[in-house]
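Hi support team,

I submitted a single chain yesterday and got back a structure, but I'm not sure I'm reading the token output correctly. Could someone confirm the output below corresponds to the sequence I sent? I've pasted both exactly as they appear in my results page.

Thanks,
R.
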Amino acid sequence: MERKLSSKPSAQAAHSKRSSRLLIVADEWKQMYVLADFLKTHGYEVQCVKQNSLESDLSQYAGVFMFIHRTFEPHAEKALIDYAKNGGRLIVLHHGIASGKAENPEWLRFTGIYIAAKDDPNYPWRVVRGTHTLANLQPNHYITSHNVEYDRMIDYQSSDSPSLPHKYPALDLHDTEVFLNQHFTDGREKTVLFGFHYRDEETREAIMQDRSGWYKPVRKGWLFHLQPGHSESDFKNRNYAQIILNCLTWKPEMGTASEARQQAV
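Hi R., thanks for writing in. Yes, this is the structure output for that exact sequence:
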């Protein structure tokens, strides 16, 4: 005989359901299907929607990913900002903070980013292609280190001048994009996790900027940004996928990587 289930789940069941539900809002899908498949293998229920189908209340989701490349519609912008400010965990990937978002000044204020014109004489917006070397600037942080393997150490000099070179763990993402000159506008609100090391193919100049990954509190919730994501291969990289997963499982009270491992058990 079929067992009847209560139409009103317990508070514990409702919380468990919510804690496993994720939403991906995007306008390019090959990369996001790779990410969704990875997240499903870790027990998450993943829903993918276009921004024109986005509901205004996203509180049912434990995490929301934003991967919108082209026109960012006002109602979607507001829904995502409200979600984070009201206690959500919003993870913005790659071109979620790129030149097209110059048309969304409220979004840039929310993310704490300024994008200069491509003809700016000092630090113009620029997109380059090639190898995105991810430098782990916080080796003891849970997000950067939990189940993540780096294949070498590199000399990296922080773009937060004045600074001196130091050796950091690094990994490569090949045949992808790097965004140069994302300007921070919010002082020290961000916790910077990753920088990028890129060698300009034309000038052979080594470019290093502390912009590949960060997070910050936004009222009751959290905003994360990870710059890689142009290519499907970025998300097929086990270590990068693990970093994304760590953004979901990290808790503010986690300290060093070793302490975080104990709390995550």
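A quick pointer for reading it: The helical segments are 11-19, 30-40, 74-85, 105-111, 142-145, 232-236, 238-249, 257-264. Let us know if anything else looks off.

Best,
Support desk
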